[in-house]
Amino acid sequence: MVRKSQHKQTTFEIISVGNELLIGKVVNTNASWLAKRITEIGGFVRRITDVRDDLSEISSAVKEALKRGTKWIITSGGLGPTFDDMTLSGVAKAVKRPLKLNKRAYQMIFEKYKEMFERGILKSLDITPERRKMAELPTGAIPLQNRVGTAPGVLIKFGRQRIACLPGVPAELIDIFENELLPIIQKSIKRTYMVERVLIVKDVIESALAPVIKEVMSRHPTIYIKSHPKGRESGASIIELHLTTTTSSPEKIEKEMEQAVQELREKVAALGGMAEQ
Amino acid sequence: MVRKSQHKQTTFEIISVGNELLIGKVVNTNASWLAKRITEIGGFVRRITDVRDDLSEISSAVKEALKRGTKWIITSGGLGPTFDDMTLSGVAKAVKRPLKLNKRAYQMIFEKYKEMFERGILKSLDITPERRKMAELPTGAIPLQNRVGTAPGVLIKFGRQRIACLPGVPAELIDIFENELLPIIQKSIKRTYMVERVLIVKDVIESALAPVIKEVMSRHPTIYIKSHPKGRESGASIIELHLTTTTSSPEKIEKEMEQAVQELREKVAALGGMAEQ
């Protein structure tokens, strides 16, 4: 039933690190932001995993994603100076490469603290072990410049697979993704586009709509239709239908999308409901 | 460094099912809500996994959680009437039990549609294959009543492990968790409580605070202190310190918490900063 075309896309996994996610203190908006951006540029996000600040949990999650053959693994969180920032240790363990002081990363961090020292935020320009730690990367890794905060992002090549580590502070994650990582990802993945439509269906409950969705999807096998109930089945029924398709030539698919939408509208009307775009 | 006491707690994993999560259309608030509630009642959420509406992905995620020895696996989403609601098929595959019509689940669903029929929302009281599907549970499973929507929740016993499947609509998930699942969970887990404090630190950057956190934690090994940078390291620095501990007797720990907070305040002041509760 699931579109086979999905597997032609480049696969991604997101691994978010942080106890705050596992105790429900923080909602994982980093993962949904990354998933949205990756989908927009044509990538296929296969799995999102949240793990604790725990070396063996981080390392296991990365190893499992590598084993699944996922092309791009993007981690968020755990790059900072505190004892429980251990994403790079976990990744190093997963790829079996030791952590080593990276000169470029050290230079990036030094420049940040130098600027803070000159602005009077720091009393001494001392690169303490906690600060130095942020420049200790798995051997062969490439640091990615952080324009917003201190800890650089990290890119690791592992055979044909790639691991990118981003900070957990949203503004830093976005900055490094957009300015450093995106150009590299775009070179490595097949260009595809997601085309989508949203249809709001009123007065037809989801179980009555289910066979309609199935029928329209069977007539348009490249289009995936997902229903999201917004009202309650037993109360006023409002269902959002989300039509998506991934294509390398978006112009061609537009006409088919319109046809699918038209068919849905007619079938919903026949069931005594209304469908609005 | 991580508190060993964590492993004394009952372990939980959350598996959220739905393409909408993996394309970044929806932020996973179900997982954070569940994680918060489970933490409040003394459970330890080890991992959160989001997978697509894909039979083999769902089944793999459940199998992996079972293999890790996690006591309680809670899934959200994929219980509805559409073709791509396949959580129960995935769980059935993972535990190697066939799906079978469950009489109690069928009765629950029938009552819902009967009520809709009587209120004029449904034109005929026809239990179509799509509606019947919601009552097809892995053999031996127990349906959990859904007071808000149609699809019942599902509880499966697998040796000493438990799998609970909840709907993806937040109001339905909350209803079943609070009214049906919580009393069962509370019977099965050790009673522990989380005690927490929040301290806002101003004018000390995270890398300067890191050794302070380490020192205070070494003096109070039962207390976990996590720093969350709120301002930017290179701008005005605001850091939230979150102190937590899990205990079976919350009264005893209060004094130690106060001591740890006091020590942090003194050390922050010595660094020229301010710490407020």
In words, what does this structure look like?
Two copies of one chain form a homodimer. By secondary structure, chain A is an alpha/beta fold. The first copy, chain A, folds into two domains: 4-188, 3-Layer(aba) Sandwich (Molybdenum Cofactor Biosythetic Enzyme, Chain A), CATH 3.40.980; 193-276, Alpha-Beta Plaits, CATH 3.30.70. Chain A is built from nine helices and twelve strands. The first copy, chain A, has helices at residues 19-22, 29-40, 55-67, 87-95, 103-118, 129-133, 170-188, 206-219, 250-270, and strands at residues 11-17, 44-51, 72-76, 99-101, 136-138, 142-144, 153-158, 161-166, 193-202, 224-229, 238-247, 274-276. In chain A, the strands form three sheets. Chain A has a six-stranded mixed beta sheet, with helices on both faces. The longest helix of chain A has 21 residues, at 250-270. The radius of gyration of chain A is 23 Å and the shape is elongated. The interface between A and B is large, with 78 and 78 residues. Strand 2 (44-51) of chain A pairs antiparallel with strand 2 of chain B, so a sheet runs across the interface.
Mean pLDDT of chain A: 92
Query: What pattern of helices and strands is seen along the backbone of chain A?
Result: EHHEHEHEHHEEEEHEHEEHE
Estimated share of beta-strand residues of chain A: 25-35%
**Within the CATH hierarchy, at the fold level, what is the topology of the largest domain in chain A?**
Molybdenum Cofactor Biosythetic Enzyme, Chain A
Major protein interface: A-B, 78 and 78 residues
CATH architecture annotation name of the largest domain in chain A: 3-Layer(aba) Sandwich
Q: By CATH's scheme, which homologous superfamily of the largest domain in chain A applies?
A: MoaB/Mog-like domain
Termini separation of chain A: 25 Å
Shape of chain A: elongated
